[in-house]
Design goal:
By secondary structure, the chain is α/β, with parallel strands linked by helices. It contains 5 helices and 5 strands; from the N terminus they run βαβαβαβαβα. A 5-stranded parallel sheet has the order 2-1-3-4-5, with helices on both faces. β3, α3 and β4 form a beta-alpha-beta unit. The chain starts with a strand and ends with a helix.
Amino acid sequence: MPTVLIADNDRAVSGLLSDVLQRYGLQLEHAYDGEEAWRLARSGSPDVLVCDLDMPGRSGLDVLESLRELDAPPTSVVISGYLEASIEERLRALPFVEQVFRKPFDLLVFAGAVRRLASRAAAARIGRAEGEEGAATAY
């Protein structure tokens, strides 16, 4: 089952997004500050990171930019109430950031996008694991 990490310090928003995404059969993890989001996003468990930009500790942008150094950063979706042009430019430089949603946004469009991205990311993860397994047993 694909795993989605929701990183948003607003527990009401996080809860609402969880309710919608659970209906699609997605497994969910939560981070309520930037430090926790940074740690969980780097753990290798989420297929998709849904990341607010305004969080205490580390900003969502800091979390996302730090993921560049990973071999396989999680596919990411940004949610934010305010986006400056300079921030949008920095987000575009991150190839694993697939979508940006400005709050408020249509929950069904959001959930459909996250479900598609999670399914694609989980299939890629399984493919990588099978490739590594096959490479280990090849003669």
